[in-house]
Structure formats: C-alpha cells, structure tokens
Design a protein that fits this description.
Strand content of chain A: over 45%
Shape of chain A: globular
Distance between the termini of chain B: 84 Å
Largest interface: A-B, 64 and 71 residues
Number of strands of chain A: 50
Largest sheet of chain B: 2 strands, antiparallel
Strand order of the largest sheet of chain B: 1-5
Oligomer: heterodimer
Shape of chain B: globular
Structural class of chain A: mainly beta
Helix content of chain A: under 10%
Radius of gyration of chain B: 25 Å
Distance between the termini of chain A: 60 Å
Chain lengths: ~1000, ~450
C-alpha cells in the first residue's frame, strides 16, 4: 500500500517536471584551460561550474575543460580545486556558439567552494553542506605507490582508521573504519560507490587460509591509476540519503573521464622491491633441554625473500566538444615477501562521455579486470608462518635423501607448503555503468544511472598427499569453490533549482533499486591419487551450493534552502525497504537535517575580524539517521529455516537451531555532528574541526534463546553502541614562491567507542580468543586470564617452582585469594587486559615543489594507544617450541642467575595478559621524489615530458611492539560471519607483516 | 519530451520490478512449508529419530559422568573431570546438552504432533508418524526428568516455556505414551512410513510398551508396569542405528576435550559378571584425567554402533520388580532367573547382554529379590543412563556415595533467556556432602 502511494507520488511529480521543460532555452558551449597562477602549469581535476546550476565539468590532465550544454545568457563560471582558491568569471553564452573562459588559480588551503556530490542528491558546494566531507584527489592516490586504492588512502583522511591487515601481495586486505566501529556482525566497512554504482567490497574466503577472512578485499580489483577523485562521508548525518546501507559511511570513487584535445598517450611503468621490515630473532642456544648439543635454524630464512613488483599503465585520453574518452590498460605483477605468494592484476577501462543533444549527455564506463593471486596458508590451524612459530629452532626443514622431514610439533614442513601447496584465487570482474543526464530546462536536471558489478571469484586449494603425517589432509586435499556475485543498481534523480530573491531553493528527489545476488558452489575431496590435482582425483568428494539474493528499494527527497550564499538549511528523507527486513519492518525512514552558516560572509564579522587574520569561517551542524542491513551471511535470518539431515540412509529435515526473526530490521544509527571550517592568513592556513556523536541502536547479533524451545539463538537486536570523537584537518601553504612551494597537511582523529547496552550476556567475539563484547567497554577489548600479582608490591605471585600463577589457579574462595594476594587485585578469574581501539590517530604530510621539476613528499601516519595481543609471541612459549631468544633462559644450566625454571614459559602460555602489548606506531608511509624531464629535446617526443619518481612505502616503523608489525590483524576485514566479528582487532598471530617497498617509476606522456 | 517519457518509464518500471521484496530462501525450506506438507512431515520423522539418538547420547553421557559409570579421559577439559567428582557449575556444557538435545527432540516431535492434523496423510502414515512422535517426546521428557528437578513439557509456540515438577512431567510422559499407543492401535503403519521414515531396527510399538513399563515403574504404578512389561515382545531388540554419517554420540564423546570412557570399576566390581561386562566394555588400562582407571567401550566401539531403545531384559527386570512390589515373590524369582540364565548369543534375543549365571539362590524375600533386581539392572543396563534414577531410589547419592549428585543445575543459557520459569538450582555446584534424599 505504501509502495502504491509512492508510485502515485512519482506519477504526480512527472507533469510538474514536464512543465519546466517548456522553460528550456538554447544552449552553447563553454571551454577553456585552468592554470596555476604561480607556475603557469595546467591544473588537472579542477571543477568548473556555472553558478546557480548543477552544470559543470572537470579539467583534464592538460588543464582543459568543456561545458557542453551551457544555457544561453550571461553566466558566472567558477573554477576551483583542492589547494587553490576559487576563481570566477562572467561569460556570455550564445545559443549554438562556443565561448572560451581560461582561469588561473591561486594557492589556498581553504576548500569551501569545492563541489561534492556524495550524499547530497545533487552536486553541491561544500559551503552549503552541514557535514564534513572528505575528499582526496588523483595526485594523492597516484603518488602513494600503493597497490590498492584503500592503501593509498592511508593517512589522508581525518576520522578514518585505515588498516592494512596483512602484508600479503594484492593489497593484504584493508579495513576502513569511518568514525569508529558501527556494527558487530554486519560488516563495518563503508559502502563503496564507483561513478554512481554500488560495488562489492567483500572479503569472502571460500577456502581456509588460516585467517577466517580473505587476505584481499575486492576493492583491490580497482586500479588506482584510474582514479580522478574520492569523496568520503563518514556517518549517518552525511550519509542518510543512502538509507539502510550507510551506517559505516560512504566512499565514492570517481574515475577519469578524459579531457578535450588531441589524444594523449601516457605510459607509466613502476618497478618495486619489497622486503620484510624486520625478522624475529630465534632461540640460538646450542643445547636442548636435556643438555644435548643441537643445531639451530632460522625458519624465516626459508620463508621470506626480497620480492619484485612491476606495474604498467598505458592510457589514452582525449576528446572533442561532443565526445570525451579515457582508456586505460593496466598490468601489475606483484611478488610477495613470503615465498610462493604473488598477485597480478590485468585489466582495462573505457570511459566515454557523449553529448547526444546539447541537453542530453550520456556517460558510459566499462571496467574489466582479472586478478590472480597465489596465496599461502598462515595463521590459525596449519600454515607456513604458523610452522615457524610452533616448531623448535632445532628443526631443519630441508630434505634428507629427497624426503622433507615432518615438523616435530606442527606440520606442514614450511618448505613443502612453499613448494607444493597451491592456493590460487582468480577473479574476473566487470563493472559497467551508464549514466544519462538530461537538462530539459536551465534549472532542471534529470539523471538516470544503471550500474552493474559482476564477478566470479574462484578459489582453489591443493595439498599433496603426505604433507601431513596424520589427520584428514594426510591423503591430500583438493578443493575448488566459486563465488558468483552480481549487483545491479538503478538510480533515478531529479533536481530543480529555484532562485527567489535572496533565496535559492534546491529540490531533489530520487529512487534507487539494488539487486544483489551471490551464488557459491564448492567441491572438495581428500584421498588424492598422485599427480592429479583436480577434485575428481579424490576418494571422498563432497559438494555444496548456496544462493543468496538481496533487494533494496529506496526513495528519497531533499530540500535545500540557501540564503545569500551564506546560510543553508537542508532537510532530507530516505525511505528504504530491504528484502532482509521482516514484513512488518519492511519500510524504514531515515531523516536528516543540517545547517551551514558562512559567518565570514557577514558584514558584522568582517567589521570585527580582519580578512588577513581569519579569511573565512563557517559553522555547521547536522543530524541524521542511517541503517545497516544484515549482510549476505544473514540475508535470510527472518525465516524459520529447516535444514536437511541424513539418518539411517534416509533424508530428513530438522529445524535450524537459529530461530527466524519476523521482526528483523536494520541496525540504526543516529549521528549528530558540529563543526567549524576556518581559513587564516589569506587562506594560507585552513582548519576543519568536527565533533561527532554517533549512537547505533538495534545492533544485530545472535540472541541466545531458551534451549527448552528447541532453538539456541535468534538473529536480532541485542544492544547499542556509541562512537564519539573529534577529527581535525589542517592544511597549510607554508611557502608559496614561484620556485619553491611547501604544503603541509595534518590530520588528527580521536574516537571513543563504547558498547552502551548489551541485552545478552558478554561474549567472546571469536570463541576461545580474547576479543570480547561487553557492556560499558569498547568493542573487542581483550579479556581473559591474567598473571596474579601481589597487590601491594605489584610483583608477580609465583608458585613453588618460581613460575607465574594464572588468575585461574588461585584458591576459589575470595578470602583465600585475598589472603594470598595481600589485597583485592586478584579477585576475579578474568579481567580486561587491553583495548585494541586506538586513543587517537594522526598523520602529517609534507610536500615540496622545488623549481618546476622536482617534487618531494613525505607522509607520516601514526596510531596511538591501541593494544595488540601478540599471540605469535605466545605460541613461541609452547613447551615443545621454545624458539624465541627469551626461551633460552629455560635451557640455561642450573645455577645460572638468568635461569628460568622448567615449564616457566609453558605456564605463561596460558596467561593472556602477558602477551598484550602497546601497539602504538608511527610509520613512514610514503616518501617520494619526482623529477620531470621536460627539456626541449624531451618535449619534442613526449609533450608533457618524462616523470621519474623514486618512492618508498612503509619504509620505517617507530614502535615498541615486539612482533613483526603492530598494524596487522589475523582475522582480516571480518566482514561478518558466525565465527568472527568486526570486534576481532589487534590480533597478531602468524600474519605476514607489511613489507618495506622501494619503487622507481617512469611516466612518459606523448 | 521523448527522453523524459523514457525516463519516467524507466523510473516506473523500476518501482514495479522492485515491488516484490518478499524473497524466499532458496537454500532451506521454512517452517511453514515443512509442517504443512505430507512430505515435510515424513522428513521430520526421519530427523526426529536422529534427534532422539542425540538426546539419548547426551543423557547417557551426563548420567554416566555423575554416577560410577564414566570417567574423564586425560585430554578432557577440567569441567568433565570435575563432573566426575560431582562438581557441576550451572554453565557446564554437557548439562546444557542434556537439556538442549532433549528439548530439540521434543520440538521436532511437536512439529509433527501439532501440525499433522491439518495435513492430508494416509491413515497408516499418520498412525506411524504420530506413534513415533509421541514416543520420542515421551522419552525425551523422561530423560529430562531423570536429570533435572523441573522440566519443560509444553514448549511449543512459546519463547519462555514453563517448567513443571517431576510428578507432573511423569504424568505427561505416561499420557504421551498412551497417545502413542492409541495412534499405533488405530491402524498398521503404512509401507511409506516403514520404508521411508522408520529407522532400520527401531521397533516402535514394542518401544512404546517398554517405555510405558519404564515410566510406570518410576511412578510406582506396579500393576500398570507389569501389564506394560507383559505386552512387550520378548524376541525384539529395538535400536537406534548410527553410521559414519550420523555417528553414535556416545562414541563421539569418548575422545577429545569432552572425552569420557567407562570406569574400570564396572568390569572389576563383580568377577561373576564377566559375560555381561564384556558385552559393554573391554579392558584397556587407560588413566583418566584425575587418575580414574578407564576401559574402552565395547558396546559403543565405533561411530556406527547402535544405541538400544531399551534392552529386552530391562522389561523383564521391571516385571520382576513389579511382581515383588505386588508381593508375587515366586513369580518374581522366575523372571529374575530368566534374566540370570540368559547367555550371550543365545536366548530369546541373541544380541543382548547375558550373564549366563545359574538360577537365583538367595532368600525369597522382597528385600533380597529387590537387591538382586537392582544388581542385575546395574550390569544389564550399563550405558543407558538409567542407573542414576536407580541410585536416587536407593539413596546412594552424595559426595562420597555412588552417584555424586541428585540433579543437574539448570543451564545458564535457559536461566538468562527464560528467567521467570527457571527456579533456583536444587543443589550447589559442589555435590551434597552426605547421602541426600533426592526429593523430587
């Protein structure tokens, strides 16, 4: 019924739109070139736009732009770009004529005029938006020397914690948390949109590689070289228009569109070498526990090597007034620092913009990519790095008479795994979009976007016979699983701008429909015959299949009222329905409202504060609601399912122990934010400051059911979580001379997460591991057994042999515990041991332009105050491993003052508190120098010269952390599931560290 | 105008095509489709027997641990070895399993019982399904009431079922068995039921009668127990079969972190009982986690070993006990003798345990015969969980006695999710120090 009403409403609006068509007049063309005022160099990615309308364009690499459907008459054209102040010009457009308008832009750190489109229903100047919106341009991406887009964003956005979860090639798996964690199980990574098309960023792991999450998230399929700009909205206040999928924020990626002029061919080639940032020292004591002499080996020597990466991009762009194109072909081959691992990406993109009539514009984008990875097993269970941690350093894995010896404690022999195991992963992906924009009248824009993102992910696994002495895989394992994912997205929007005196009304309305389908088929076997590696070669094949479909329909409307271009009020409503919600909760409403006030435009302010001191000042506040749908893993949680069983050779059915929830509805976030944007010293220094307060209610998780009902749990709302924080972004143009320019950008992010309410008992996120979800504490705190101490002195309580005493080994009665401890500090058997959520994040970017030819850049990125649980160090304490230098103390002869009693470390193994470490780190994320050869003889062949860049990534880490890398996380992106949640952070166990990478790159433009 | 029209069309069709957000789950049928179709009910019948097997396994394991039957193996968690000594805190996993698996058996039985009336079924299929469902539900409630002081009997359609005391639960069990009887009496089960649902080796009508005898005995209805015992065929051995795919749950709990095996005291306690003990266990010299000497299972030696629905001689021992209580002592002695003189691979049923002893030579008094009956029950009914109730009746419960506890504590999950219904635990975590009278 509601749907019928909305459809009726749409129909009612249609004639309204039609009347405005009659107001249409003739159009002409505006074109021109944007240049840097100081260096006269072309400025790419500048936004050029006709004031008071949504009509505009971006400048290309050569600085040229074209606005094809400019309405006739006298118009104000505005050009602007990040790092520059806006520039305005009046032009007179005559119907059917072309008018030229060139701009020179002067440096400025303030970006109030920048136009953003994400979360705003229509392209809108930043000054009019009541929320803070992050944006990153192509140069920041391309100069990062990163493999994936999310890597390239590290350290560039305030309010974002961007963590690379491992050093595996192909991106390593990146988690992005915008303003903290907003869900437990339904994924906490933002919604990714490419050119208006919702894309998949899942991390499905179809075969077990030891991390419960893929070591690559699907954003890795996109080529950073294609990126024009990225916009980031961080919470519900800004993202309400994306409705029930926007809890975690939205990242919109815009790809290059091509620029006017003759075709420009650009070839870029990069060669990199990666190495392990540090290796762990091993037990080199020459005697074993019995005092017999032993040889010691460092298994890391067999596991890691220096690896090469080659990346090539060939692009052609150009266009006429009617047609613009951008074509790119890319080929990347990346070797991992762990032997036997690699990743390659081959693909191409064609973007075409065609003006069909002066008022109708068609944009088509097509992106095909093949990603192929060779991964290795690490982490939980059995794996290469796992074998290093579990086995004594007296283990020599090298073959004896052609036979690889089994490991004494935990197989596989790492050399067998490196040489014989196969864990390939193959992705074939197509992302296509079609966007039609029609300006039937001067102030009316209608646009329709059709998007498709489809891929197949094939993941195989092969263990040869005899790699394990016992167990199910002893006879070999062959497995093959295929995911077919498809997202179809349709979006229709109408925008109408109505000026009325000092006011300007912008009305927008739209409808969005998304259909997602995920089909998984897998087959596996053990008992392999020799040589053959396919599943059919096994004795016990098994197969499984699942099909998941999600549909979301949403309508939205927004009204923005601007007054004198300095006060803006916005109100919007999104009305969303998803097939995952129960029938009675099907339609959900997400409102938002915001105010933006550019104080510095007011006379009274100017009379008080001179322009030289405070050049611009804006106050903004916003409130909004957004939701989070159950993920594909829980897409059918509203149903009471019955599962097939087999008994006595007969097929049977039983109720699933998870009770269906007819009242299932999305997690719901309320966000309130307040901020100030200010420019100082003639806009040479800018500051964006935001305070936000987010509250997620109806958090989804499994609520335990009374077992007497025959069910054990139900997927339902179980509590609330809040994130409050501050984010600061400061930009300074420290020096701006024709031959020397110095830009500095700093970010500061502080977030406090608290599980505000939990209607169910506390629980360990991944059973048996320390991350816990507990009311009143930050999500994922480490919780467990601690070493008992003397409450007065703080010294460890030791047992009669001089070993630590776990809190669980103390007497059970409280009085006896206190008597032993001399106080109450050991009352509980478990306690909170640490918090993986950082206190704050910060980054500092310095960029220098020396002369016209040399650019230098350095980015420091730091995480402060988060704890890491070093379970890699823990497992080295295993009595049968004892392979760390620390463990040598147990092998020393009696009488040595450093001697630890036998079993000291094996006892410590059971005490989690001893492995929680401060994970504070600062990384030299990026360092680069680019020199442009543009001497006349070079330019004769290469019109824009040759760029030579020497760069480094993750070159150095300042940290007290004792493991490889405090940034990594075993459970990866934790996109959701039943065996792990987003709470599992700061979890270092047999994870490949992020490599130190040096690159040399050349770029030729013809 | 044309592009506008096209766009309106697109927007319109968008709304229309999106109309149906009521997707169905292609991976699993829902409750509505399963319980409203004849096929669905037949499949539930198969699943029900699997659940009956699982709940029987959980009951055998739990009751075995807190009596003198089972002990924790070396790799077991301390919760298992603690339970061996009678220490069972409310959060103990295997206790939750006894509660949960039996509740799930009841749930599936209810799926059939409650919904069958609205489904068109051949008369013989209905009688078979109903007989099975009533029987399984009765036995599941029966196993609960032998483990907990209060139990749920009517949990269907509620999120917070009420718990009732043992006497009330026992009345329900007996009423369910009467219903099972009536369902089976209605008509002979159809070939469809027998071939597609009923597990190979499970004799439902005789199991119904045997369970009637079992629970009338617990209720002290001796005339009724005698009548039921007399209507059980003496030549039938009714079992729940298992296989490598659906594994024997007791075997499955004999290794790993929950592992428990028979204590060797069963084998060594009576040298004359070697025939029967050899049926159940094989000597193995295994040292348990807290030092208890353990044997291996013989009766549940593999994952495909079946679990008896009841042992044929349980019925005879019930009959003998009923006769004693009805003061028909010579008849009782004759029945006891027929149990004592049964030999392995011989007798009415060749595959059941047989002590191969001579006739009873003791005094023919009620007390002596009762002693002999309980002694026989210990060796004849090992690994059935029934010993716990016997020890309660004998008053052999307490920290230093044979059974360490009277009852299990209620599972913490049940208490959290159903706080209004769950009473205080009848005992603490530690076992009662002295022999406790286990008041129901």
């Amino acid at each position: 019924m509601r749907l019928a009403f909305v459809r009726g409403l749409l129909c009612a609006l249609a004639p309204l739109a039609a009347t405005n068509v009659l107001a249409a007049q003739g159009t002409g063309i505006i074109r021109g070139r944007i240049m840097d005022a100081a260096s006269r160099a072309p400025v790419a990615s500048a936004q050029v736009r006709i004031s008071g309308s949504t009509i505009g364009a971006l400048s290309g690499e050569n600085g040229e732009y074209i606005i094809p459907a400019a309405p006739a008459g006298t118009r104000t054209v505005i050009a602007q770009r990040i790092g520059y102040g806006p520039s305005r010009r009046e032009v007179t457009v005559a119907a059917g004529e072309t008018v030229t308008a060139d701009f020179t832009l002067a440096s400025a750190a303030v970006t109030l005029g920048e136009v953003v489109v994400t979360g705003t229903a229509a392209p809108t100047e930043r000054r009019a938006i009541g929320t803070s919106i992050g944006s990153v341009d192509s140069t920041s991406i391309s100069r990062a020397s990163a493999t994936t887009i999310d890597q390239a964003l590290q350290g560039k956005i305030a309010g974002a914690q961007i963590t690379q979860n491992s050093g595996t090639p192909g991106g390593g798996g990146v988690s992005v948390r915008l303003r903290g964690t907003s869900s437990i199980i339904s994924g906490s990574d933002p919604l990714y949109i490419v050119d208006g098309v919702i894309i998949d960023n899942s991390s499905a792991t179809l075969r077990d590689l030891g991390s419960r999450s893929n070591v690559q998230n699907r954003l890795a399929d996109l080529n950073p070289a294609d990126i024009e700009r990225i916009e980031i909205i961080r919470g519900a206040a800004a993202a309400a228009l994306y409705g029930s999928r926007a809890n975690n924020g939205v990242v919109q990626i815009f790809t290059k569109r091509g620029s006017i002029g003759r075709g420009r061919i650009s070839f870029q080639s990069r060669a990199s070498t990666s190495e392990i940032p540090r290796t762990l020292r091993v037990n080199s004591y020459p005697y074993d526990i019995q005092g017999n002499p032993v040889n010691r080996f460092n298994l890391q020597d067999f596991i890691f090597h220096d690896a090469m990466t080659y990346e090539n991009n060939l692009s052609v762009e150009g266009g006429s007034e009617q047609t613009r194109y951008y074509i790119n072909g890319t080929w990347t081959e990346e070797d991992g620092i762990e032997r036997s691992t690699s990743s390659s990406r081959k693909g191409g993109r064609v973007n075409l913009t065609q003006e069909i009539t002066p008022k109708l514009n068609l944009t088509i984008g097509a992106n095909f990519v093949n990603t192929h990875n060779e991964f290795q097993v690490n982490g939980e269970g059995a794996g290469v790095l796992t074998a290093f941690l579990f086995n004594p350093s007296s283990y020599d894995p090298r073959p004896v008479a052609g036979l690889f010896p089994f490991a004494p404690v935990l197989d596989p022999n790492p050399l067998v795994a490196i040489n014989r195991f196969k864990n390939p992963q193959d992705v074939n992906r197509f992302i296509g979009s079609m966007q039609a924009r029609w300006n039937p009248a001067d102030r009316l824009t209608l646009s329709y976007t059709l998007g498709y993102d489809g891929y197949s992910l094939e993941q195989s696994q092969y263990f040869p016979r005899g790699a394990f002495p016992t167990g199910t895989n002893a006879t070999g394992l062959s497995a093959n699983s295929i995911n077919n994912s498809r997202i179809l997205n349709q979006d229709a929007v109408a925008n109408f701008i109505l000026p009325y005196g000092d006011f300007q009304f912008t009305t927008s309305g739209g409808v969005n429909y998304t259909e997602q389908r995920l089909r998984t088929t897998s087959a596996a076997t053990t008992g392999l015959i020799p040589v053959v590696e396919v599943v059919s070669a096994g004795a016990t094949p098994s197969a499984a299949q699942s099909i998941i479909e999600l549909k979301t329909l949403g309508f939205y409307g927004q009204e923005q009222i601007g007054w004198k271009d300095k006060l803006f009020l916005t109100g919007a409503l999104r009305w969303d329905a998803s097939s995952t919600f129960g029938p009675d909760e099907r339609w959900q409403v997400f409102p938002k409202g915001s105010v933006s006030y550019v104080v510095s435009e007011d006379g009274w302010f100017r009379s008080l504060v001179p322009e030289r001191a405070v050049s611009s000042l804006r106050l903004r506040t916003a409130i909004g609601y957004a939701g989070n749908q159950p993920s594909t893993l829980n897409a059918y949680s509203r149903f009471d399912d019955y599962v097939p069983v087999s008994y006595d050779g007969k097929s049977g059915l039983l109720n699933s122990v998870t009770l269906g929830n007819e009242g299932l509805k999305p997690e719901r976030q309320r966000e309130w934010e307040f901020g100030v944007d200010a420019g100082f010293l003639d806009d040479r220094l800018s500051l964006e400051a935001t305070y936000y307060d987010k509250l997620v209610t109806d958090l989804l998780y499994f609520r335990p059911a009374a077992a007497s009902t025959g069910y054990t749990r139900q997927f339902s709302a179980i509590g609330a979580m809040s994130n409050k924080g501050v984010e600061l972004l400061a930009r300074a143009i420290a020096v701006d001379r024709p031959r020397f320019r110095w830009d500095a950008t700093a970010t500061y992010t502080r977030n406090r997460n608290i599980v505000k309410r939990l209607d169910i008992p506390d629980f360990q996120s991944a059973s048996g591991y320390p991350n816990r979800i507990k009311e009143g504490d930050p999500i994922g705190v480490f919780y467990g057994v601690y070493a008992a101490r003397n409450c007065a002195t703080g010294d460890y309580l030791l047992d009669s042999l001089g070993r630590l005493r776990p809190s669980t080994s103390l007497p059970t009665t409280i009085d006896a515990r206190r008597a032993l401890s001399g106080g109450t500090c050991n009352d509980s058997t478990n306690r909170i041991l640490g918090d993986p959520n950082p206190d704050w994040l910060g980054s500092l970017l310095n960029e220098f332009q020396i002369g016209k030819k040399l650019r230098l850049r350095a980015l420091l990125d730091g995480t402060f105050g988060g704890d890491v649980i070093n379970l890699s160090r823990r497992i080295r304490d295993l009595g049968t491993a004892l392979n760390s230098p620390e463990n040598e103390a147990e092998l020393l002869p009696y009488g040595d003052p450093r001697k630890r009693p036998p079993g000291y470390f094996a006892r410590r193994l059971g005490i989690f508190s001893e492995y929680v470490e401060d994970g504070t780190f600062v990384k030299l994320r990026e360092l680069s120098a680019t020199y442009t050869f543009d001497q006349p003889f070079v330019r004769r062949v290469f019109s824009s010269g040759i760029d030579l860049t020497v760069s480094g990534r993750n070159l150095h880490t300042w940290s007290d952390y004792s493991g490889y890398d405090p940034e990594v996380n075993l459970f990866g992106q934790n996109a959701g599931g039943t065996t792990t949640t987003v709470a599992d952070r700061g979890f270092d166990f047999a994870v490949i560290p992020i490599p130190r990478t040096w690159s040399v790159s050349l770029r030729f433009t013809y | 105008m044309r592009p506008l029209f096209a766009m309106a069309l697109v927007a319109g069709s968008l709304g229309l095509s999106a109309c149906n957000l009521d997707t169905t789950n292609p991976n699993a049928p829902t409750q509505e489709t399963v319980v409203t179709s004849a096929d669905g009910l037949l499949f539930l019948g198969v699943g029900l027997q699997l659940r009956l097997g699982s709940s029987a396994g959980a009951f055998i394991y739990g009751a075995g641990l807190v009596t003198d039957e089972l002990g924790a193996i070396a790799t077991a968690f301390s919760t298992i070895s603690d339970a061996e000594g009678g220490t069972v805190p409310p959060g103990t996993g295997f206790v939750a399993d006894v509660w949960g698996t039996n509740s799930r058996t009841i749930k599936t039985a209810n799926d059939i019982i409650v919904n069958q009336a609205a489904v068109a079924l051949p008369r013989g299929t209905r009688s078979g399904l109903l007989g099975l469902a009533y029987m399984a539900k009765a036995e599941a409630i029966g196993e609960l009431l032998q483990s907990f002081q209060q139990v749920p009997v009517d949990a269907y359609g509620t999120r917070t079922p009420a718990l009732v005391d043992r006497a009330t639960a026992l009345t329900s069990v007996l009423a369910l068995l009467d219903s099972a009887d009536r369902a089976y009496a209605d008509t002979v089960p159809s070939a469809v039921f027998t071939s597609q649902v009923r597990a190979t080796g499970l004799d439902i009508p005789n199991t119904i009668q045997a369970y009637k005898a079992r629970y009338r005995r617990i209720g002290g209805n001796w005339a009724g127990a005698l009548a039921a015992a007399d209507s059980v065929s003496r030549t039938v051995f009714s079992i729940l079969p298992f296989s490598a795919q659906a594994v024997n749950p007791v075997f499955n709990l004999s290794t790993g972190s929950s592992g428990a095996l028979p204590r060797d005291v069963f084998r060594t306690s009576d040298p004359t009982e070697t025939q029967r003990t050899a049926y159940f266990v094989t000597a193995a010299n295994i040292v348990g986690r807290i030092g208890t000497p353990l044997d291996n299972w013989n009766v549940f030696a593999t994952n495909a070993s079946s679990i008896p629905a009841y042992y044929p001689d349980e019925v005879l021992l019930i009959k003998a006990e009923a006769l004693v209580n009805l003061s028909r002592l010579p008849e009782a002695k004759a029945v006891i003798d027929s149990v004592r003189t049964d030999c392995p691979n011989a007798g009415r049923v060749t595959t059941d345990p047989g002590p191969c002893l001579g006739a009873y030579a003791g005094a023919i008094t009620a007390a002596d015969l009762t002693n002999e009956i309980y002694r026989n029950r210990r060796y004849e009914l090992f690994g059935t969980g029934l010993r716990w109730e016997d020890l309660r009746r004998l008053g052999l419960v307490g920290a230093t006695s044979v059974a360490k506890r009277c009852w299990f504590p209620y599972p913490i999950g049940e208490r959290n999710a159903n706080p209004q219904s769950v009473p205080a635990d009848p005992e603490g975590t530690e076992p009662p120090a002295t022999n406790a009278a286990c008041t129901p």
